[in-house]
Amino acid sequence: MQDSFKISMDEFLPLRDVVFKTLRQAILTGELKPGERLMEIHLANKLGVSRTPIREAIRKLELEGLVTMIPRRGAEVSQITEKSMQDVLEVRRNLDALCAQLACERISKEELDALEEAKNDFEETVKTKDFKLIAQKDVAFHDIIIKATNNMRLITLINNLSEQMYRYRFEYIKDFSQHPTLIKEHQDIFNAIKAGNSEKAGEAAVIHIDNQKKAIIAQIRLDKLNKSGMKQDDQQHE
Amino acid sequence: MQDSFKISMDEFLPLRDVVFKTLRQAILTGELKPGERLMEIHLANKLGVSRTPIREAIRKLELEGLVTMIPRRGAEVSQITEKSMQDVLEVRRNLDALCAQLACERISKEELDALEEAKNDFEETVKTKDFKLIAQKDVAFHDIIIKATNNMRLITLINNLSEQMYRYRFEYIKDFSQHPTLIKEHQDIFNAIKAGNSEKAGEAAVIHIDNQKKAIIAQIRLDKLNKSGMKQDDQQHE
DNA sequence: GATACGTGGATTGTATACAATTAAGTACAA
DNA sequence: TTGTACTTAATTGTATACAATCCACGTATC
Known about the structure:
homodimer; mainly alpha; Arc Repressor Mutant, subunit A; Four Helix Bundle (Hemerythrin (Met), subunit A); 2 domains; three-stranded antiparallel β-sheet; 9 helices; DNA-binding
């Protein structure tokens, strides 16, 4: 473990929330790896707080599914299996389609303009090959659609499901050959929403997810192979 | 407040989980009413534990959406507005359809038998007019379908969404006139799943939710009227 | 009489202390 | 050498103590 993630004090939030965000970020970026134990005293020292906010943050991570509790042993970062990712994607497939459909009915003129801009912005950014920025612009595009549903519960759910994919989405974006496909899919989604064609929008969203699914699942299988192939070098020292 | 909910010590779980379940139950049954504050010391005394498990339980309820945090004021039971229920139902409508579709593809022979039995069981129970039992048998029927999807993430999500409807589902079941409809809808769902007809199963599930939606929304509007009509008798004494 | 200010109590936020349990290591015996 | 029992260290689970903040009430002044 790199021992590098730091608490960001710029926010005026209860420590538990700062810790929650910090730990979540660390898990999503892979800084805390699946299977790794979250030891309270250790984390408390590292983040410069007491055990109380750490524990409360862990309770939230637990309900979010990012950590798994083992009685009397504490929390560890949840494993991402192919099955668990299949499950996530199966649900997202439907909810993303729902989002696109609802957006057709509910999107405002301003939001539609913003969506078009986000689409163009994404296309421009793809040319730069700056993966981090591309991922960011991709999120921006989809966020507009999700927000346009005006369904708070749906927004929360999609964000939570996206989290689970976060570590692998990057691999998809890194694949140059997929970039034209990505752009095409975004265009299809945008055009369908602009035309107010729910059916087409839903279909386009499904295609978009299915393509990502292929890449993500392939990556997971690759990871698993690497992992099982590795000698026992992966002992975690302090 | 009735001051009546008690901790059940029969389980061998961390106190935080016992408290979590206890508080959730109290909220879902309406024992703790929307807007009511959850004061830690108070709850700790009532349940005979310290503040620590109470706080950790509240963190989980917070993420589940059953309580709302107000900085420096603590937690209060979340309000159920018509909008929030519309949002929940909009998502459930889709996920229930997904469940039914997936069940068509994945249900085992044993599960299908169990589903038929649950269906018949429900029909028998409806005759008794025992609302609590009817609700229970209804849950049992749907649980089999949900479990048959073999998608853990979906199961968790549906259970969480069901929770939000819990308080109002009862009102629907109390309405005698709806009983034949309920039975018919269960039959339709069962037949479609038995026939392996995903499309029909999805449609049947949607109809089932839509009918419940009518009843639930009507009930919420009624509640709101009663509430706003009430004189200020609802001051909360100790 | 109304409004502004101050003070005290109640409640949350955070830290620490204590208890219980697990896990590992070591020594001793078969 | 292996197995078992005991001891000790580490970690979680729970309780309590302390700090900071907010809210309501009362008083004083305009």
